[in-house]
Amino acid sequence: MNIAYLAVKLLAFKAMAFERSTKDPVRAQKKILLEFLKRNRNTEYGRRYDFSSIRSIADYQNTVPVNDFETFLPYLEKMEKGEDRVLTVDKPIFFGATSGTTSRKKLIPVTGYSREKKAEVSTLWSYYISRDHPRVLDGKVLAVISPEIEGYTGSGLPYGAESGFGYRNLPIAVKSLYALPHQVFEIKDYDARYYCILRIGIEQNITTVATLNPSTLVLLCKKIEIWKDKIIDDIERGSLNKEFDISENIRREIEAAFRPNPARAAVLKDILKERGALLPKYFWPGLELIECWKGGTVKIYLKELPQYFGDVPIRDFGCLSTEARSSIPMSDEGAGGVLAINANFYEFIPREDMSKKDKRVFLCDELEKGREYLLVVTTPGGLYRYNIDDVIVVDGFFNKTPVIEFVQKGLNAVSLTGEKVYESQVNEAVNKALDAHKMIVELFSASVQWDHPPRYIFLVEFDGVPTLEEKKGFLKSIEEELCRQNCEYSWIRQAQLLGSPLLKVVKSGEFERYRAKKISEGAHDTQFKLPELSGDFTFQDNFKVEENISIE
Fold first, then answer.
1. CA distance 18 to 125
2. Which residues contact 65 (CB under 8 A, 6 or more apart)?
3. pLDDT tens-digit series, residues 161-195
4. Phi/psi at 336 (5° precision)
5. Looking at the predicted structure, is the pLDDT value of residue 302 above 50?
6. Residue 335 CB: number of other CB atoms within 10 A?
7. pLDDT at 101
8. How far apart (Å, rounded) are the C-alpha atoms in residues 125 and 123?
9. 3-state secondary structure (DSSP) of residue 43
10. In terms of CATH architecture, what is 3-113+317-409?
11. What's the pLDDT tens digit per position in 344-403?
12. Partner of 321 at 20 to 30 A CA spacing, among 384, 397, 467, 476?
């Protein structure tokens, strides 16, 4: 039994303790809340709201307001400059960068204590994977993450992707399970980075692939077709193609691990000859699991994975953000995960209250199955009653603890004339239209066009060449589903306050060009997601449109 399997066996005791706590989630929530408040009572924020006097959840709710990023910004700026004891007694060791509703990056402090709490959730998630897929540790993990360091704060601390920071600082015993050295993610040119991921990964016995957004996996698989000959040649020679822009020091470190491998190259050549394509389902026969997001608006990309990976099961990461890891999926079914009640303190605002001045706030034992809520978190990293702007839905309960699933960002909605169309509604409409017409799109994005009256447009890059009638049928199905889901949209369309939607077929490769542009401007390549709904009237100007289709 190797160290990894022994560690998994020991984790079973932690899983049992977690499952016991789910029988009385409010007790667990009160315990973790009071732990955070006691720990940080002698901070600037703790003194302002008199943490020392808080004895209950009700005291906390009556004393501390619900906050957003702008509320915390003055405190966070002090921490970026190096001031101590502002939000936490623990000094930051890193700042996780994430996008906000404005152009300013949100820098979220990461402390040793907050990392430990997140790691507890991560290890439980890993335990349930290993329980259900015991052979997942027989080979290597191919994890695709974002670069660690984007820059430095005024105090000299790095900021960037927390996933990159965690990957570089993995314990040596755990690091040996991963296929890719951290230097790969430091490569600036993202084509060069993707080439290295594929060149290294395809040579190895990969038993699990992990990345947040499934669109990253689709993109990598498309790159294989372009680079397959180069990859096979490099594996055979033990080299790293010189055409790619990789700094000499990183190239030297990566190449040091390579050895000529003509046997593996021969296997890959045989696959190409016999199958006609080099796909993961052929060159990674031992692949046990894909780990990626499954909920919210990424469902459309999951439809493409079987053609590349076969029927490999997929496990959701759960509700995971720079600010908090909030759920633990326990199975491959669906995208729901048990609320991580020992890692953060949670409150929930009903979705229908989002635009109200006086919002109801519920605890985890007050939630209802099938209802949607806005997630409010108190974290070990110093965010108190923080409106994370995530909408979740309650899928059910594990013991007495809710199983939650990410739906969408709360502000991801467009309303031209009062219809309030949400990104999740657009995603659902497009997915159902694709199923109905047995079509696949490479990517899509809904936006708006200022006409008289204004209208919604759907920018689409098709996989294949559907006929004009098929495209019209596809657009009509989207419109019908939107009307079914959103009564305000249906009413306003009938009142002719909105024009009929347009389907705009973009030139092949346009979405990839846009992605490359955004990454060159600083977006995280593994987390970048094309907006599936944009209220920007100029958004379509980013793409070359080959065909405009109307259902009128």
1. 11
2. 71, 385
3. 888 888 888 877 788 899 999 999 999 888 999 99
4. -80, 150
5. yes
6. 26
7. 46
8. 5
9. coil
10. 3-Layer(aba) Sandwich (3.40)
11. 999 999 998 987 889 999 999 999 999 999 999 999 999 999 999 889 999 999 999 999
12. 397
Q: Among positive and negative, which fits the CA dihedral 429, 298, 350, 420?
A: negative
Cα(first)–Cα(last) distance of the chain, in Å?
66
Residue 180: both structure tokens together: 């890719």
Residue count of the chain: 552
The token pair that represents 80 in the structure block: 């970026």
Contact between 174 and 256 under an 8 Å Cβ cutoff? The reply is: no
Q: Which residue has tokens 């009385």?
A: 24
Check whether 295 has a pLDDT greater than 60: yes
Q: Please state, in angstroms and rounded to a whole number, the distance separating the CA atoms of residues 21 and 402.
A: 12
**372-378: strand order across its sheet:** 327-328, 337-339, 401-409, 386-398, 372-378, 345-350
In single-letter form, the type of residue at position 12 comes to A
Q: Do 354 and 365 contact (CB within 8 A), yes or no? A: no
Q: Which residues pair with 402 in a beta bridge?
A: 397
Chain-centre distance of CA 239, in angstroms? 33
Q: pLDDT digits over 312-330, tens only?
A: 999 999 999 999 999 999 9
**Predicted model pTM:** 0.83
Give me the residue label for tokens 């040793």: 112
Q: Which residues pair with 192 in a beta bridge?
A: none
Whole-number Å distance between alpha carbons of 232 and 255: 15
Domain positions in the chain: 3-113+317-409, 134-147+171-312, 413-550
Q: Report residue 206 as tokens.
A: 């990969």
Handedness of CA 222, 224, 229, 231 (dihedral sign): positive
Cα separation, 440 vs 462, whole angstroms: 6
pLDDT tens digits, one per residue of 61-117 = 999 999 999 999 999 999 999 999 999 999 999 999 886 544 467 899 999 999 999
- In one letter, which amino acid is 140? K
Using CA atoms, how far apart are residues 375 and 361, in angstroms rounded to an integer? 10
Residue 457 — very low, low, confident or very high, per pLDDT cuts 50/70/90? Answer: very high
Question: ω before 466 within 30° of 0 (cis)?
Answer: no
Phi, psi (deg, nearest 5) at residue 104: -75, 135
